[in-house]
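forwarding from the other thread:

> can someone predict this with protoporphyrin IX containing FE?

sure thing
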Amino acid sequence: MKGIVFTEFLDLVEDKFGLEMVDHIITNSDLESQGVYTAVGTYKFSEMLQLLQHLSTRTKMSIDDLLLVYAEHFFGVLEDSYPGLLATYKDPIEMISSIENHIHVEVRKIYPDAELPTFEVIEKTENSLIMDYKSSRAMHHFGLGLMNKTFEYFNSSASIVLEKIKDDGTEVRFIIEQN
Ligand code: HEM
């Protein structure tokens, strides 16, 4: 997992819960990195899981809810860092259905070692999209948060339903209806 995901996560934790919480989740985790991250480095996903688990225990928020809030923050980071990529799109359904074949393809050119999910478009109309998410990291709620913000970015909104294809969340169907 790329360092930018860690650095932005810890910034958000500090903003929302304070520096003590950052210290708590780092010192209670067993981290190869010792909790020192640089944006361009690459770290084990298991470090993120430990940080999330400790934050979840402390805040009594579910990991899914934490990932949702975090993704909504991360969208702003993407907006600032990759304005050109977002400017290619005029419509949220077009953008979300292009993650697999365009957006994440570009991401992989910048970060060859990025650990990305796969998205398969099952059905697409002008204002609806059914898309299957697959990833061993089960970060579907991170995807949900990014999708919510994508609609907001285009001054729109949507109802998005998640249906687990696998109980462990490594395969999830997104059913998206633009309002
Ligand atoms: C992960 C970039 C848009 C879904 C990531 C990562 C980067 C990235 C750098 C982390 C990779 C790693 O840690 O190794 C971008 C950029 C985008 C974009 C630059 C737009 C300009 C989106 C959108 C979605 C999405 C709109 C919505 C579905 C995900 C998910 C992950 C991810 C779910 C977590 C990894 C996993 O589930 O396995 N993306 N992304 N991305 N991205 Fe994107």
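The pocket of protoporphyrin IX containing FE is lined by residues 1-2, 5, 78, 82, 85-86, 96, 99, 103-104, 107, 111, 114-117, 135, 137, 139, 142-143, 146-147, 150 (CB under 6 Å). thats all i got for now
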